[in-house]
Amino acid sequence: MDADIEDALDTGGRDRPLYRQVQDRLQAALADGVWKPGEMLPTESDLGQRFQVSTGTVRQAVLALVREGLLTRRAGKGTFVARIDPSQGFDRFFRFRRDAPAADFHPQIKVLDVNTLCRAEPSILETLALAPGDEVLSIKRLQLQDETPVCFSISYFSRAMVPLLESENLSERLYPILEERFGLHVVRADELLRAVAADEEVGRLLQIDEKSPVILIERTVYTYRDRVLECRKTYGRSDKFSYKIQLR
Amino acid sequence: MDADIEDALDTGGRDRPLYRQVQDRLQAALADGVWKPGEMLPTESDLGQRFQVSTGTVRQAVLALVREGLLTRRAGKGTFVARIDPSQGFDRFFRFRRDAPAADFHPQIKVLDVNTLCRAEPSILETLALAPGDEVLSIKRLQLQDETPVCFSISYFSRAMVPLLESENLSERLYPILEERFGLHVVRADELLRAVAADEEVGRLLQIDEKSPVILIERTVYTYRDRVLECRKTYGRSDKFSYKIQLR
DNA sequence: CAGTGGTCTAGACCACTAT
DNA sequence: TAGTGGTCTAGACCACTGT
Fold it and tell me: What is the pLDDT of residue A239?
């Protein structure tokens, strides 16, 4: 299992620096599930011995993976595979504006529909890297805060990738479920934001007039090796939902 | 001028590690304009001697500032104060979707109105950290791509901070002007996105029906020491304007 | 050529965590 | 007390840049 990891690094050609090669090996090992989310990695000096490099070089590789969000470290404890923190709420992959303190923000999730589609839209199939005819699981959910609808979302998954997902409690956050039940770990997400007019369904669900402006977020979620895990469309009520970004 | 920089670091108390202290000193020096945008900093070993620390410690400090976007380094050349790259187009602080290759994206900017306000909205004054009665400069501009309006924006500046800005060519990008003429360097920006209905003015300017959905971006731009430089509202045409983010 | 940052090593000592 | 990552040092050699 660790055999690939132990193979000698390329110290001659030097097309990639050693710490990059270590980083690549570690990332591949994570993708192969050598260490599961939450588990501890070997220590710096241990990894240094395995790769036959100094701890400083291991350190450079590990810190790069920490910056990418794949690992976390805690002084005195060790280096761990990053995991979705259920207590983190919507901080990492959601950017609601919070007028109330984070602790008071506990939206209620209502599952509206779960369906297996045999003929999903071509754009969805393409994003999920599926062929025509492949089955797609769609999940429609509504989020409410204090009984008021905030946003409505439709998630699409490759049916084959998440067997029996519908037997889970889908009114919880989906990403911890994916991690715990299917070993599918969210690594990053791309989002495209637009303003659109609410159609009949969106207007009805969000309790606003048809053609009211809503924010549409098209999200693509990736796991290791740039594999697409989910694509999702979220419609947010313009008076309850805004999106915050810091640019550097 | 460099006197503060040369002062001994705190090696005893150790509330902050040395590399953080070096980072703070460098950041303060940048804020004081000790080195202007585009200029080269002393070498690692030079800085190490000044601060009486090893080059590895200087390196840690400098790399942190590179990650924050305040410095850039080029192998074989040196470390430089980051500057707004006019050829960078909208890559850094704008996130248009580009259906065309970046090279083909050259929006035309039309200046609609430049005005000095004696009584700006309280929210604007607050964001700009001004008192009631302080003068605010407002600039309304329209961006067109191939003769079609894409977005409309209103920028607000503290009048006193940018004297005679209106005598510049405001159909160019504003941030290079601020840097070159006023020594005001953009360090970071916060943005809040919402979907709203176009009012009469926005509809007319963007050539869309009143009440059509548009994306509203409220941006606050900061220079060194978290000083607010500009606040801006941008209204984007929903069919021409979308916003892309990568989350990690 | 001399000077720069990029990479890498082999240590040292510290603060934090758990037992 | 033992083990972890966090910080720091004082070198070394390399690749790249400009003269």
Answer: 86
